[in-house]
Amino acid sequence: MSAPLAVTCGDPSGVGPELAARIAAQGAPAPMVWIGDPRHLPEGTRWEAVEHPSQPVAPGALAVLPLTFAGPASPGRPDPANAAGTIAAIERAVALVQDGACSAVVTAPINKKALKDGAGFAFPGHTEFLAHLAGGADVVMMLACPELRVVPATIHIALADVPQALTADLLRRTITITRAALIRDFGLTAPRIAVAGLNPHAGEGGAMGREELAMIAPLLAEMRAEGLDLQGPLPADTMFHAAARARYDAAVCMYHDQALIPIKTIDFSGGVNVTLGLPFVRTSPDHGTAYDIAGQGVADPTSMRAAMVMAWDMAQARG
């Protein structure tokens, strides 16, 4: 059997601990070990401490690699005192995968402000921190569900800043990393990638913007000549209906909402965040800490379960 998934606790005041406990109780979709402080698990959770990820536990019990945090956790109330423990859980998960003791990293949501306030966390989020732990890997973010995979070329920046940030080098890098991941992690021998335009109607021949004519179309033509199967630049408003999605394996979009609105419309509960370009597999549920419902036992485990399934499948594809 392959090594288990390393599942991090995330912010212990969020829904991460309860999602892991519920999935273990219901039957995890893949072998898993949870990394965190067992004091933060919901009352009544069946868990067993393990010294190594491969150590078996009773059916329905959550295997726990214990980490001692600074204190208890209050659902819905992030505590900067627990920031160092949250970071340590991520570091432990990555180390386990790098050592071959675990097959992939699945991260529960974190609170960046709490990490910054409590531990001076210097990264915008999980993705950048994982790239740092991987030695400075060049990464991009994919959101995926069974019906659609999308990759935004620019992510958490103001819409007004997108045209300047969207360079030929950035778009080439995004497409190249996406294609390599589709081959290595998703088992596609000849990936088909659709690329959106930046402007309405993909610029409509320059009438609604010239980025397509000046940069996007020439770059795609150049990359097609190198052997890549690329469509575009395409009008974003006609890329995501069912017939259009059948013509490609992933869509590269120009900015955050252009990518995330369609996937969250198609599969709001089951989307998975995947970091492409890392030397190890990392997935995460496509939602946040959900402080408003943390500790109430009503959090939907669909996205976390989907993240585990995708991480397991990607790890198997990598062999």
Automatic annotation (TrEMBL):
Named cofactor requirement(s): Zn(2+); Mg(2+); Co(2+)
A GO MF term: 4-hydroxythreonine-4-phosphate dehydrogenase activity
EC number annotated for this UniProt entry: 1.1.1.262
Known catalytic reactions: 4-(phosphooxy)-L-threonine + NAD(+) = 3-amino-2-oxopropyl phosphate + CO2 + NADH
Signal peptide (from-to): none
InterPro entries noted in UniProt: PdxA, PdxA_fam
Positions of substrate binding: H126, T127, K264, N273, R282
Principal subcellular localisation of the protein: cytoplasm
Keywords, comma-separated and alphabetical: Cobalt, Cytoplasm, Magnesium, Metal-binding, NAD, NADP, Oxidoreductase, Pyridoxine biosynthesis, Zinc
Subcellular localization: Cytoplasm
Metabolic or biological pathway, per its Swiss-Prot or TrEMBL entry: Cofactor biosynthesis; pyridoxine 5'-phosphate biosynthesis; pyridoxine 5'-phosphate from D-erythrose 4-phosphate: step 4/5
UniProt-annotated binding residues for a divalent metal cation: H156, H201, H256
Record text on cofactor binding: Binds 1 divalent metal cation per subunit. Can use ions such as Zn(2+), Mg(2+) or Co(2+).
The protein's assembly and partners: Homodimer.
Note in the entry: The active site is located at the dimer interface.
HAMAP family reported in the protein's UniProt record: PdxA
Function, in words: Catalyzes the NAD(P)-dependent oxidation of 4-(phosphooxy)-L-threonine (HTP) into 2-amino-3-oxo-4-(phosphooxy)butyric acid which spontaneously decarboxylates to form 3-amino-2-oxopropyl phosphate (AHAP).
Family: Belongs to the PdxA family.
Record protein name field: 4-hydroxythreonine-4-phosphate dehydrogenase
